[in-house]
Every structure is written in structure tokens, then in C-alpha cells.
Write a structure and sequence with these properties.
Radius of gyration: 35 Å
Oligomer: single chain
Strand order of the largest sheet: 1-2
Number of strands: 2
Order of helices and strands: HHHHHHHHEEHHHHHHHHHH
Largest sheet: 2 strands, antiparallel
Number of helices: 18
Shape: elongated
Length: 360
């Protein structure tokens, strides 16, 4: 409530200005605080850069190939201290796997590295009595990848461990994070592809003739960001194997529209041609073989062999024989074309005079 007393006027000299005292600036406390923060940072950086486990992880995660030899020595030192150390065993498995993924390795050398990689991972599983508790999803992922790279003998194991990896990854996301950060590069058909976990599962399933599984996994893979064209190719093959020809043609047409690699384009044209041949649409089948031939200045022998198959189905045997002859002229080792020629030329060959006399 406002006062009813009259306001008095004061001279400036009579005013008493009160300034609150500022808290004294304590340099010593600030210095101690900064020193503690600095010490914490130094300890953290020291652990990150000089701790053996951190150095090993950094080298393997970042694919620092120049550090591989030093990394190997660090891993061996850890295993000498404790042969059952899960971290060191996993690091050793990853080390051999990363080396195997490098280029310019012969088949035997790569196979030996992959076996060493798998042996290291399996020790962890054995130590854990085969239980998934305490085992991260990336362990099964790396095992599945190693078995996939071994080839046909490893595909069943690969599918088993990759599916286990997917089950566990829903909880800890180790694999998802790894693939996003580092990528997964697979060398197929003389070309390197960056593929996803579902993509890898689809490719393994196809190699095992598991068409339903292939379709399930690759349909997930094609929806992912940066999906590669190779998914559509194998998706098309899986649909073809199940007799779902319309879907197969759709997927293979996607490959043709998106792909620039000559080898994959040639394969796609030939696959489409074979589908039309199965559907007895012979003109379409011939059309796609001729598209494949246009990819080269000199068409490959296999294209003429396939033309022969179409004309054989059309009951135009003379034309079929003509194209099979062309195939063996271009490739004397084309066994399929040779077998067709032997079969048909014996079938249509006129009997000699001696044989005719014997028949009489």
C-alpha cells in the first residue's frame, strides 16, 4: 500500500548507497577444480589410447591394417596372461577374419585364416557352455560371416549362427551398430558389395536352396537404405525356383534398369530368357538372349548355346544345331553344347551303306 506521507527531497550527498559485497574470487579452489577435471580427462584418454584392450578394439573396428601386426602381438600377450580371456579370444577371431577379408590372398591361405577365426570364436562358446547368456550377438555374427566366406561347406553353420545373431541383436544391437559403423563388404562375382545382415542371410539361404527363407530375408533387405542391386537378382532367382515367374521377372527387370556391371546384366538377361522359355514364350526368350549378346563386341559361346535350346524347344532342330556348332567354335570346352551336338548329329545322321546292307 502506498504511503500517504509527502515525499521528501534529498540532496545527493545525503543518500546512502549500499552495494552488496562481492564474494571473494578464490583462485586456489578454481585451480584445484580444473586440475581434477584435467586429471580425469588424462586418465580417460590414457585408457582410450594406451590401454591394450582399447587399442585392439580401435584397430579392429576401424580396419587399421597398418596396426594389424602390433594388434596381433597385443592379443597374444593377453592370451599368455589368460588363455580363457573372452575379450582376447574374440579379438583374435576378429583379427584373423579381417585379414582373410583382405585382397590378394590365395584360397588356401584365406581358408586357413577363416578356420583360425572360427576356432577362436568357438572357444568362447565352449567356455560359456554353449549358453547365450553373456554372449553378445556380434560373436555369432562374426562366426556366421566366417563360415559364409569358407564357402559351400560352411553355409549351414553360417545360417545357424547368423539367425542366432539376429535373435540376440534385438536386445543388445551389437551387430546393427557394427554394420552401420563399419559396413559389411563381400566379394561376389568379381565385384565387391556392401551388404546388410538381412542381405547376407538372404544370400546364405539361397546357397542352401532355401527359397522361402531367401525371399523372406531379401524382401527385408531391399527395403533398407542403400540396398544393393544384387538383392533383387537373388530374389528373382528364388521366385523363379518356386515357379512364381511374374515376381521373378519384376525383380530381374529391376536389376537390368539399375545395374551397369556387364556380368550381372548378362546373367539377368539369360535368367529372364530362361523364364520365358519355361513359359513357352519363345520370341521373348530369343529377344533377351540377343540383348545379352549386344553387351559384347563378340557374343559369348553360352549365348549361342542358349539360342540352340530355344530353337530345340520350337522343334527347329536344324537351327538349334547351327547355334550349338557356333558355341563350340567359340569355346571348344563348352561341354553342354558338345553333348547336344553328339546327341542330335547321331540322331539325324544318315546310315552308311554297310549298315543298310546289315539291316537287309
Amino acid at each position: 500500500m502506498l504511503s500517504s506521507y509527502p515525499i521528501k527531497s534529498y540532496k545527493k550527498d545525503n543518500l546512502k548507497i549500499i552495494n552488496p559485497k562481492k564474494t571473494p574470487y578464490n583462485k586456489k579452489k578454481v585451480f584445484i577444480l580444473l586440475a581434477v577435471i584435467g586429471l580425469v580427462i588424462i586418465i580417460f584418454l590414457g585408457n582410450f589410447f594406451w590401454n591394450d584392450e582399447a587399442r585392439i578394439e580401435r584397430a579392429l573396428e576401424n580396419h587399421e591394417t597398418s596396426e594389424y601386426q602390433a594388434t596381433k602381438i597385443l592379443i597374444q600377450d593377453l592370451l599368455k596372461e589368460n588363455p580363457k580371456d573372452p575379450f582376447a579370444l574374440k579379438a583374435q577371431g576378429k583379427y584373423y577374419l579381417m585379414i582373410a577379408l583382405e585382397k590378394n590372398l590365395d584360397v588356401l591361405e584365406e581358408s586357413n585364416l577363416l578356420k583360425k577365426s572360427i576356432a577362436s570364436f568357438e572357444k568362447i562358446v565352449i567356455l560359456g557352455n554353449g549358453q547365450s547368456q553373456g554372449i553378445k550377438s556380434d560373436l555369432y555374427f562374426f562366426m556366421g560371416l566366417a563360415y559364409f566366406l569358407i564357402g559351400r561347406r560352411g553355409y549351414e553353420h553360417s545360417l545357424y549362427y547368423l539367425e542366432r545373431s539376429v535373435e540376440l541383436d534385438q536386445k543388445d544391437q551389437e551387430v546393427t551398430d557394427y554394420v552401420q559403423e563399419n559396413g559389411l563388404h563381400i566379394h561376389m562375382d568379381n565385384k565387391s558389395y556392401s551388404i546388410s545382415l538381412y542381405g547376407l542371410l538372404g544370400l546364405v539361404s539361397y546357397q542352401l536352396n532355401e527359397s522361402d527363407r531367401t525371399i523372406s530375408y531379401l524382401n527385408k533387405a531391399v527395403k533398407e537404405k542403400d540396398a544393393v542391386v544384387i538383392y533383387h537378382y537373388y530374389l528373382g532367382l528364388a521366385y523363379k525356383d518356386l515357379g512364381i515367374y511374374e515376381k521373378a521377372l519384376e525383380e530381374l527387370e529391376i536389376v537390368i534398369n539399375k545395374e551397369k556391371d556387364t556380368i550381372l546384366l548378362e546373367k539377368s538377361y539369360f535368367r529372364i530368357s530362361s523364364i520365358y522359355l519355361l513359359r513357352k514364350e519363345y520370341n521373348q526368350s530369343i529377344r533377351y538372349i540377343k540383348k545379352a549378346q549386344k553387351l559384347y563386341s563378340s557374343p559369348p559361346a553360352d549365348s549361342y548355346y542358349r539360342l540352340g535350346l530355344v530353337y530345340e524347344a520350337k522343334k527347329q532342330n536344324a537351327k538349334a544345331i547351327k547355334y550349338w556348332r557356333k558355341a563350340v567354335q567359340l569355346n571348344k570346352k563348352h561341354s553342354k553344347a558338345w553333348r547336344k551336338l553328339v546327341r542330335y548329329e547321331q540322331k539325324f545322321k544318315k546310315p552308311s551303306r554297310k549298315s543298310r546292307k546289315k539291316r537287309r
